[in-house]
Amino acid sequence: MTKPVTRSEAPGDSKLASKSKDVPAKAHFNRAGSVIGIVVGVAYLIELGSRAVTPTAPWYVSQILSALAVLTLLSPGVYLTLRWDGTPMLKWTTFTGIALLVLVQAMNLCGRAEWFESWPVVSHHSSLHGVVRWLLLFTGVFLMLTSLYFALLETTLARHRLLEERQDLSREIAERARIEKELRESEAKFQDLYENAPDMLASVGLDGIIIRCNQTLARMTGYTKDALVDRSIFGLFHPNCLAEAKRALDFAASSRERLEIELDVQRKDSSVFTVSVNTSAVRDGAGAICHGRFSMRDLTDRKRAEAELDHIRAFARCLLWHGDVELRDGQLHWSISVPSLEAAQRYLPLNVKPGQTYFEALGESRAEFPHVVDQLNENALRVFTEGHSHLRDEFPCRRSDGELRWIYEDAYIEPLGPDRWRVAGVSTDITERKREEENLKQGLSLLAATLESTADGILAVSRDGKMISHNKKFQDMWRIPAALIEEGDDRRLLKFVMDQLSDPKAFLKKVDELYAAQDSETHDVLEFSDGRVFERFSRPQWVDGKSVGRVWSFRDITDQRLAEEERQRFESQLLHSQKLESLGVLAGGIAHDFNNILTSILGNTELALNDIAPEAPVHSTIRMIEVSARRAAELTRQMLAYSGKGTFYVEPIRLSDKVQELIVLLETSISKKCQLTRQLADDLPFINADATQIRQVIMNLIINASEAIGDSQGEITVTTGAMDCDREYLSDSYLDDQLPAGRYVFLEVGDTGCGIASDVRARLFDPFFSTKFPGRGLGLAAVMGIVRSHRGVVRVTSNPGHGASFRVLFPAAARDTASAGKPADYAYPPRNVTGTVLVVDDEQMVRDLAKTTMERAGFSVLTAVDGRDGVDVFRQHASEIDVVLLDMTMPHMDGGEAFREIRRLRSDAKIVLSSGYSEEDAMGRFGELGLAGFIQKPYRITDLFGVICKAMESTV
Q1: Distance of CA 70 to the CA centre of its chain
Q2: DSSP SS3 for 247
Q3: Residue 252 · residue 225 · CB < 8 Å
Q4: What are the phi and psi torsion angles at 507 (to 5°)?
């Protein structure tokens, strides 16, 4: 391995170090240049101070301050002289400036001294002394400034040189990083080549211990690399080859040449294979051999090829034959001999009898295949008589040991005259090839059978778009003619199927993308214009790591898609049904409790009206209370209609008649901008329905259509008719209750209004849901409840912005269907009425009302607070009670259970049920038990009296 470059050995390090030595010296002058200006300013301030104190202080104070200023001014110069390594001339200039300034200051000090002024020379030349002093001062300052300027100039130049050197340093560092990166990449490539080399490589110490090896050696021997390292390489060779292996290592350790020998390597699983071992020596930096290198190549394939070549050569040597052939009496007569019978017997041992030629024995060995012999004779006769130059045949024969072999003959023909020929040829054993061909044929047959038995359509195409193979399912799924399949052009197939697809452009675009990206896979869904749906799978077809084409797989999921859509639709209907059922229970419960309150209000207002004269002032007020209570009762009836538990008086009616009656009234109630169109069918079948509830349905649908049109111009169309409906049509309704197929009468109300948005349709029939102003929303909910109670369905179609249509379907009924009828009216208050009535109700107000009503009519009244109490009271007064007024919903014991307990106490007991739910519900539960009557809350006292009287007259 290449030794990594260390930091100390990196190129350019010494140069970088030498460049960096100048940096501290230059830094001194950078700092000096900035300090000198400050020093000069300080010196100037000191000098001003010395002059300021002159009048008041002794003269030597001023002189001391002046000397201090000079020393301060001289300090940068001294610093530069001592530390700066600039040119000698600049040093002498600085030194001269310093000397002159010192001399000026000395002259200045001497001039201030009295003894100095007494000198004769000074006294005679005082003016000259001042001129000299100023000249020296000017010269000294000039020299100092000159030195300072050049010092700063040198510092600036040094800084620029330093920046350039830093840039050079950065470039050298970047170049070094690039070289190191390339070195690492080169080492990685070398390592990859080493690990994945086709040869088995190992570095072996002189003692035979493996120092390192590549992955190929580990894979070929069955060990891991960790298990091979520090292991003796001699343990990998077969024991018979150990001496040769050690000789190879010794040769590598003592020679500069390479040695190549063949050895047997033993794998971890004890299997053996032959390798070619090439050994060489590896030397260190001093030229000494430090270890050996083993390079081993697997010779298994080469040995096999050499063996096959030897076998082929043996065939050529052993089965060469020659002779003459003559045609006599229409038969070929062969005079054939082989050069060596012994060699032929080794190659193909036969039972050769004394006096028999080898080819005669060969003919007997195939006698058990008469059809083959006949075919060989016919083929040979045709080849000879037609003048061909070669004869080629293959046939089975039986060896002397009973083994069946296949022989291939290839002979050269030379004519000798009329009906005479000379032949020379070779026979080759092709048994193994025939077996491989048979195995291949069986494999292809199995593959073809597998393709044909799969439920998917399979198509394989080449890279250039030609069909390679397909199965019958593919042809049937795509409805492709056989002639087009035989052409095998995939592009023509694509052109043919384009018309079948819902989106042919997207299909063709996807195909082009897959052909362009040969290694991509896809899984998508194809939709056909006739409703079929296919799943498409496509992936490239690889052979020996190379893409040779693409395989397409198609699965028909039409039924699965329909089943999934049906399941989703059923789940949606079930969810909606559960929601409506829950809301219906809630609405019914609220209506039931509210009805108890309304029963008391209506009953007591009616009693009050009977007691008060019509001209009394409070009569009108009580009448308004009654009207308001009846409007509240109408609201509860709508809630009960939604829950499907309203009061129905079922009778045969014609739907068109009810529509005609109601439209006359509604024409004045709908918007004046709406045109109402009627398309009413005559002679419709009867339906069993409550006429009042049907009117409610018609009114709500027409008013809903009018509100959908709003202030715009529009049209409302009301249509009636009859139709035969199958289960598929009925299941597509808004709420499928699994109604049976048959004859249905329909009412359809369509409008040209705003339509219904998709998010609104899900809540269309929810109670108190409305897109209009608050307080609305029971209309369509009541419609749904009424229709469900009549065993009908509702179908809604709408296109937002283009109106909506509601179709209500009721099952047709026979005309003679019996009507439940309404209870007969009885005058109240009656006269001469007697009997005992037991009132069982959990509401105090209802009990009090019923008690007051019956007592005013002349009855004796007993009361009970719930079902259990009612049974106890009936048990005590069973013989004297004539009628039981029994509430359906009570705590502790409900009306149904109380009904059965009372009947067990007295089988002929007359029981009238009272409930906020419908009579149909009550009759369905207790009708067959002999129910004496039913009254729905809230009720009028006259209706209550009539039901009680009718029950007393009935016979249970």
Answers
A1: 89
A2: helix
A3: no
A4: -65, -50
- Contact between 836 and 882 under an 8 Å Cβ cutoff? The reply is yes
The whole-angstrom separation of Cα 217 and Cα 224 is 9
Whether residue 790 is predicted with pLDDT greater than 70 in this model: the reply is yes
- As given in the structure block, the two tokens for residue 48 are 């001003």
Q: Which helix (H) or strand (E) holds 457?
A: strand 457-462
- What angle do helix axes 558-611 and 844-857 make, rounded to 10 degrees? 50
Phi and psi at 561, nearest 5°, equal -65, -45
Residue 894 is given by DSSP the state -
pLDDT digit string (tens) for 876-902? 998 899 999 998 888 888 888 889 899
Cα radius of gyration (the chain): 61
Tens-place pLDDT, residues 700-747: 888 888 888 877 888 889 999 999 998 888 877 766 667 888 899 999
**SS3 call for 575:** helix
Peptide bond into 938 cis (omega under 30): yes
The C-alpha atoms of residue 38 and residue 180 are separated, in whole angstroms, by: 50
SS (H, E, C) 154-214: HHHHHHHHHHHHHHHHHHHHHHHHHHHHHHHHHHHHHHHHHHCCCCEEEEEECCCEEEEEC
User: Which pLDDT score is estimated for 874?
Assistant: 92
pLDDT tens, position by position, 172-231? 898 888 888 888 888 888 777 878 788 888 888 888 899 889 888 888 888 888 888 888
Residue appearing with tokens 């008690």: 851
| 3-class SS shares of the chain: helix, strand, coil, % to 5 | 50, 20, 25
State the pLDDT confidence band at 857, using cuts at 50, 70 and 90.
confident
What is the spatial distance between Cα 170 and Cα 176, in angstroms, rounded to a whole number?
10
Nearest 5°: the CA angle 311, 316, 319 is: 105
Edge to edge, the sheet with strand 289-298 lists: 210-213, 200-205, 289-298, 272-283, 259-266
Q: What is the pLDDT of residues 401-416, one digit of tens each?
A: 888 888 888 888 999 9
